[in-house]
Amino acid sequence: MTLNKAQKRTILIAVAIAALLFATITSLRAGGYAGWDRAVAAAAADTRASGWTSLWRAMNDMGSAAVVAAVALLSAACWWRLRSWKIAVSFVGVVLSAYVLQSALKSAFGYERPDDAWGITHDGYGYPSGNATIAGALYGWWMLLGWLELRGRVQKIAVCVLACVLIAATGWSRIYFSVHYLSDVCAGFCAGGICALTAATICFWRRS
Are 41 and 178 in contact (CB under 8 A)? Predict the structure, then answer.
């Protein structure tokens, strides 16, 4: 498939919006965690219960290294079987690029995590959220592929909804366990989204 002019324009606009949002969040974060960060953290803490904890621990695992690697490799194998080697390789590339990007950004900013983290293991700096970045890249790439490759409207919507749920749930789980604030997660979504959009340009962009 080759992107048409409208799709190219949409992707470029989406990259610009994601980069602008990341820059805005980073600018706000430079002054310390904002009131809305603390308000969302407090709201998440108020919902804590054994049932919710089990659910959000499972959702947190959707952004873990083991699950992400398994999903990426399984996806790559499926697309390789469909004889689309570029897309197959892109799944490995998008995850690796997201991992490298979030690691570099964490080292560059050096912002600490919340002090009251609990329930799951964590390490390293907090900004941006690594799980949110990688989930945004991997499941965001699945969403873009579904929208670009699937023909049926119902199938497109189903893939997009599932991807959005996985991305949002992974991000919220990090807030629920107080290992990240909302700004960390949103910045991660922006960075991961840029990785997914970059994969789309590499795989589908052709000169018209």
Answer: yes
In this predicted model, what pLDDT tens digit does every residue of 10-33 receive, in sequence order? 999 999 999 999 999 998 887 776
The region that residue 124 occupies, defined by phi over 0 for left and psi between -120 and 50 for alpha, beta otherwise, is left
DSSP 83: T
The Cβ of residue 115 has, within 10 Å, a number of other Cβ atoms equal to 6
Query: Is the pTM above the cut of 0.85?
Result: yes
Distance CA(62)–CA(72), nearest Å, equals 12
- Spans of all domains in the chain: 5-204
Cβ(186)–Cβ(76) below 8 Å: no
Please answer whether residues 186 and 24 qualify as being in contact, where contact means their C-beta atoms are separated by less than 8 angstroms: no
Residue 90, Cβ neighbours under 10 Å: how many? 24
